[in-house]
Amino acid sequence: MRILALFFLILLRVGLPATWAHDIVLVADPWPPFNMEPGGDREGYLIDVARAVFEPAGYTVTYRTVPWKRAIEGVRTGRYTGAVGASNTDAAGFVFPDEELARNTLAFFTRGDHPWVFDGPASIETVSLGVAAGYDYRQWLNGYIAAHRNDEQRVQVIAGVQPLKQNLKKLLLERIDVVVDTEAAIRYTAKEMGIWEQIKFAGHGVEPAYIHIAFSPALAESPELAGLLSRGIVNLRRSGRLKEILDRYGLHDWK
């Protein structure tokens, strides 16, 4: 019995799959206001929703920030439970809830004195574009990034934990001409950095993306978690709790 008990303790110390003992580990790079710094008063509304759904059901939710490509790979292999802010493109093969947590279109921003405006895919060929490694920028722009990722006059790809913040800094330093992301993320981050008045909106793409917390295809409990989250989002909306969460970030329901 002592040997078995010791073996069990060793297993606990060396680590078990992410959802052992109802522990959900969610990962992403910071993407305000969707997900922000762990442990703060505002961790991002996707994290707030996850906690509001899973913790009353008996789960412990742990949220960590890691670079996006590493987050996707870690969730894919089952090291982590779910990727926060994922779409069907950048998390292909993951287990997705039926209910999304945002609907986004691409937004293009330049410096305040830059004359460029987005006027369809061909218009980006005249500027240097700042993007983040592993992000979903829709099929047409993903293809353009892949084709020109070694040409810094057209595309500059940043990896790391805070790629949007880094790209906005590069924009003001005139190292790139345009930053592309979702408008809510750029607006929130630029205001947080105190540079909102120095940049300007230059146009939207047209294709929407549906944003989720997507669960690991390597973990047997992922379909159950996805179903629980879907039902939870519906219940939060009906009760008014979702509105309360969104209000904290100055956002409105996407439905």
Give the CATH class of the largest domain: Alpha Beta
The name of the CATH superfamily of the largest domain reads: Periplasmic binding protein-like II
User: What is the chain-wise order of helices and strands?
Assistant: HEHEHEEEEHEHEHEEHH
Share in helix: 25-40%
CATH architectural grouping of the largest domain? 3-Layer(aba) Sandwich
Low-confidence stretches: 1-21
Task: Give the strand content.
Answer: 15-25%
Number of strands: 10
Structural topology:
Blueprint: H1 2-14, E1 23-28, H2 45-54, E2 60-65, H3 68-77, E3 82-86, E4 102-104, E5 106-111, E6 129-132, H4 138-148, E7 155-158, H5 163-172, E8 178-182, H6 183-193, E9 199-204, E10 209-215, H7 222-239, H8 241-247
Parallel strand pairs: 1-2, 1-3, 6-7, 6-8
Antiparallel strand pairs: 3-10, 4-10, 5-8, 5-9
Helix pairs in contact: 2-7
What do these coordinates show?
The N terminus is likely disordered. Strand 1, helix 2 and strand 2 form a beta-alpha-beta unit. With 255 residues, this protein is of the alpha/beta class. It is globular, with a radius of gyration of 20 Å. It folds into 2 domains: 128 residues, D-Maltodextrin-Binding Protein, domain 2; 99 residues, Periplasmic binding protein-like II (D-Maltodextrin-Binding Protein, domain 2, 3-Layer(aba) Sandwich), CATH 3.40.190. Helix 2 packs across helix 7. Helix content is 35%, strand content 20%. It has a 5-stranded mixed β-sheet, with helices on both faces.
